[in-house]
Amino acid sequence: MNGGRRLSPQEIADILRERIRAGELRAGDRLPTQAELAEEFGVERGTVRQALRALQEDGLLTNVSKGSPPRIAEPAPAREEPQPTMVGLAPRLTEAFSSAHVRIDAVCLTAESLMLALSEPVRHIHEGRLRPESVEVRVLLPSRKISLAFPVPVEGRDGDDDPVHERWLAQRNAQARVLQHNLLALRATHGTDVHVSFRALPFTPPVKLYLLNGAEALIGYYMLTRREEEWESRTLEMYDALGSRSLLFSFVKQAGQRDRAFVEESQKWFDALWGTITTDLTLS
Length: 284
Description:
By secondary structure, this protein is an alpha+beta fold. It has 2 domains: 9-72, Winged helix-like DNA-binding domain superfamily/Winged helix DNA-binding domain (Arc Repressor Mutant, subunit A); 83-280, no CATH class. It is 38% helix and 24% strand. It is built from 7 helices and 13 strands. The strands form 3 sheets. An 8-stranded mixed beta sheet has the order 3-12-9-8-4-5-7-13, with helices on both faces.
């Protein structure tokens, strides 16, 4: 079928992917054996195995390398519409904590939403419904030393007197401390291997990003608004972002190549920031 030229694993995967898309292979159907596919495409079995692994990574096959021909996977369930952070984040974190080894990476303006949302999986651990062996949480927050793009006073900064910045810094530190305390307490109560660390960003993040076990990315835009707040007997007029209301858009590796690429690139972006231009963050 290939005119004497051996097909690559990607070409074989593309042919099988098209058969699935066209309905020639349907959910639950078994594929031919690796030997039969190797004979059909005129390639070695190793080439077929690479093609099948690629389809499995795209969420199109199940039972690869189980000793019997893989099956066509059921279509991924339709994901819910984007939800506000305070609605959508806690359930996703709870699901992530069902893994034995949990890794949560976050980029955010403050740790408020993450702190509040983590209370749900922590509660499930205390109730005995979740039993992770290890939990690693890494959080990137803006440095105290930078001039934030937001929140900022409506009338602009007046020299070193910036109560809006002082308010943000106090909230950043207090929320991060509570998050750290609640997670580290699991060491004493359940023997969970917990590590929580923070790094300081040299810029104001325009979006919030949560990476769950390297398998899902949740991203939301910080929408700016003008608002007032009482702070230490002063009325602060500021341009600020209400992060709890940011809509979170979910990308899941198993949903296909596009989502997989987004999750992987987001993780690479986070890891690059963590290991390069960020600095140690002190909660004081």
